[in-house]
Write a structure and sequence with these properties.
The complex is a heterotrimer of chains A (205), B (268) and C (204). Chain A has 205 residues and is mainly alpha-helical. Chain A is built from 8 helices and no strands. Chain B is α/β, with parallel strands linked by helices and 268 residues long. Chain B is 56% helix and 13% strand. The chains are: A mainly alpha (205), B alpha/beta (268), C mainly alpha (204).
Chain lengths: 205, 268, 204
């Protein structure tokens, strides 16, 4: 029963969502709306499960004394956001949005901007013309870097045009082949999942 | 010099290059790329009061790059008196979208509920995109402020994608791909993208096939758009630093390769 | 004084301290960010999915059928129990099934067929000119696909053709790297703008 019920649920949900593409019948539309709403609601619960697991792990780490101050900061920050939302709401001017604007968003953007430094370091230490493939990669990257450099508009038409050509034809062709491969693979996996041939999601708890 | 010191030197030099070049103020006039021109032309060609969905499909991490794009596109939309339905397919895009939309709408004296509305976020983006094709009210019973959609004047008569002139997805990932693939031929939406530069090559096949109408990519794309509208902003201001950073990276690649070939020659 | 900008500026510098080496100041900022991000997501998901789509319709409008997703959602918590853990597979199956069902038409038509059809271009235009770029796309597409064809050993013609595919992929990766550098630099410029303008008030 522990496998059969999920397999039936998966088959039914899969068929409803597949057939909705082809049918405008009111019953099909109603079923689609129902499954679609349920999908969103259940998805939201998965986040709550994740939050519960995070809190559980953090509490355990605090009890063991492992990185206690940092885990405590994380937990307090986590609790503070719902509290701020309850106390002051989530509209413009609320403490909740103030915290998002002045603490969360700047930190997130800064963490992301750290990558600029690591990309620079990698450009010097790892971006080498070791063989033909690496040389092609390097040359394509340099052409794009130079071609999309704003000042190039004043210096040359050739390099920006070459950049657009690379992007629109050879680079696009390779990306398209990768997309088609992913598309065919995803479609096959989706069919196998609906038909119950692919059951890896039933493993573990 | 050991590896750690080389890294610190590169980090400090990059930071210095960007700070110094950012302090220097230059007004740039750069040519417009075809895709940015096409995006501008699309918004110009829409009749006034057309319904446009602007979806903030990005997180705060890419805000420095996406914000100039969202600002200039919203300025264009509001200056053309288009009606904007804001939403987000990322939780973080909600706070960003809500505030950005209100800020830009205030610049043009637009009224909430009549000229624009912010629907907020819905989890499970594919389900949200599919559901809105059926009924926007089914997916978003209320807007971000808790008003029922039936009570919002702007939303009267807006049932699903049939009343939408275009969707503008401002994305730092592949959310726009889902807009393209899950609305596709069935709904025939005109989709315009505003992306981080890192995502540009991902979307090239969709631009080539016409599934994605056009795109504004990265700071340079935003600066080109600012140029057409004659409203130079943060993107235009960033162009000198962007140029300096590109030159710095190109020099690093060349220096790295010279060192590599010298070492290889010495080794032989 | 704008305390928001002061806090944001100090936290920005705290994160940049990582460039020197991992340290407690960075770890504090990192822990704060993790907690705030999860807390923010919690509030947003609660407001937009649970209140909006479940609590109000179920308790204010009496849509009793919504008890089903409520129960299915609660079943997700059974993952914490060894005995009842299997129950979480049921809501999981609904989500996976719905995702798979809706993906088939999207993957088949929008991702595969439309991309294939756009690659089939005449190699000689109506004006009698040779369409070199069209040929590049065709060779690039087929050779890259050949590289991912694993049902036959990559020897002989297939091997050589697949090798051409790797050159096209290198062009794609190179172009993507170039644009990624551009993107990361823009993000850094954005932070420098904040530090110089809002935090230090050095620029206007």
């Amino acid at each position: 029963m522990s496998s059969r019920i999920p397999l039936i649920v998966c088959l039914v949900a899969g068929l409803i969502m597949f057939l909705q593409y082809f049918s405008a019948h009111p019953v099909a539309r109603a079923m689609f709306n129902q499954v679609n709403d349920w999908w969103q609601i259940i998805f939201a619960f998965t986040l709550f499960v994740g939050v519960a697991a995070f809190m559980n792990n953090s509490m355990r780490a605090i009890r063991r004394g492992k990185e206690r101050p940092f885990k405590t900061v994380s937990l307090l920050a986590l609790i503070s956001m719902p509290l701020l939302a309850i106390i002051g709401g989530t509209k413009i001017g609320s403490p909740f949005l103030w915290t998002f604007d002045n603490l969360q968003a700047p930190m997130q953007a800064t963490v992301f901007s750290l990558l600029a430094f690591f990309v620079a370091s990698a450009s010097f230490r790892g971006f080498r013309a070791r063989n033909l493939q690496a040389t092609i990669l390097l040359v394509a990257a340099l052409i794009v870097l130079l071609g999309r450099m704003p000042i190039m508009a004043y210096l040359s038409d050739t390099i920006p045009e070459l950049t657009y050509w690379i992007q629109d034809y050879p680079s696009m062709a390779a990306r398209r082949a990768i997309l088609i491969g992913i598309g065919l693979g995803s479609m096959t996996t989706a069919l196998r999942v609906i038909l119950g041939l692919e059951r890896t999601y039933l493993r573990g708890q | 010099m050991n590896n750690q010191k080389i890294r610190w030197t590169i980090f400090a030099s990059l930071f210095a290059v960007i700070v110094v070049s950012y302090i220097i103020t230059l007004k740039w006039r750069i040519p417009t790329s075809p895709s940015v021109q096409k995006s501008y032309d699309l918004i110009e060609s829409l009749p006034p009061s057309s319904m446009v969905i602007v979806s903030f499909d990005h997180e705060a991490s890419s805000l420095p790059e996406i914000q100039p794009i969202s600002y200039i596109i919203l300025r264009h939309l509001f200056s053309r008196n288009q009606r904007v339905i804001g939403m987000s397919l990322f939780a973080e895009g909600t706070a960003i979208g809500y505030q950005t939309l209100n800020k830009l709408a205030a610049e043009y004296g637009k009224k909430y509920g009549e000229d624009y509305v912010f629907l907020g976020f819905k989890p499970q983006h594919i389900s949200a995109i599919l559901g809105m094709g059926e009924s926007i009210r089914q997916v978003f019973p209320q807007d971000y402020l808790g008003n029922y959609l039936a009570e919002i004047p702007l939303m009267s008569g807006v049932e699903n994608y049939r009343q939408i002139a275009a969707v503008i997805s401002l994305a730092d990932g592949d959310r726009t791909v889902q807009w393209i693939e899950y609305t596709g031929k069935k709904h025939g939406l005109t989709i315009l993208g505003g992306f981080t530069a890192a995502m540009i090559t991902t979307y090239d096949p969709y631009l080539s096939s016409g599934q994605l109408y056009s795109a504004v990519g990265g700071i340079v794309g935003a600066a080109e758009y600012e140029g057409i509208l004659g409203l130079p902003g943060k993107a235009n201001r960033a162009l000198l630093s962007q140029t300096a950073a590109h030159i710095f990276i190109v020099l690093l690649v060349i220096a790295g390769n010279i060192a590599y070939f010298k070492r290889r020659k010495g080794g032989k | 004084m704008d305390w928001g900008a002061v806090a944001a500026g100090l936290l920005t510098l705290a994160i940049y301290s990582f460039l020197y080496r991992d340290n407690p100041v960075y770890k504090f900022a990192e822990s704060l960010l993790i907690g705030l991000s999860i807390g923010y997501a919690l509030v947003t998901f609660w407001q937009t999915a649970i209140l909006d789509k479940l609590v109000y319709p179920l308790f204010s409008h009496g849509q009793l059928l919504l008890i089903v997703p409520l129960l299915l959602g609660l079943m997700m918590f059974s993952r914490f129990s060894r005995r009842l853990g299997w129950l979480s597979r049921i809501p999981l199956a609904l989500m996976i099934g719905a995702g798979a069902g809706s993906a088939i038409p999207a993957m088949l038509y929008e991702r595969t067929l439309r991309q294939v059809s756009n690659s089939i271009q005449p190699l000689v235009t109506a004006g009698g000119q040779f369409n070199f770029s069209g040929l590049v796309v065709l060779v690039g597409l087929l050779s890259t696909l050949a590289y991912f064809y694993f049902s036959r050993e990559h020897k002989g013609f297939l091997g050589s053709f697949a090798k051409i595919g790797t050159y096209f992929m290198m062009i794609f990766f190179g172009a993507t790297f170039g644009y990624t550098v551009m993107s990361r630099m823009s993000t850094l410029i954005g932070r420098v703008d904040f530090l110089l303008t809002d935090f230090l008030h050095y620029l206007k």
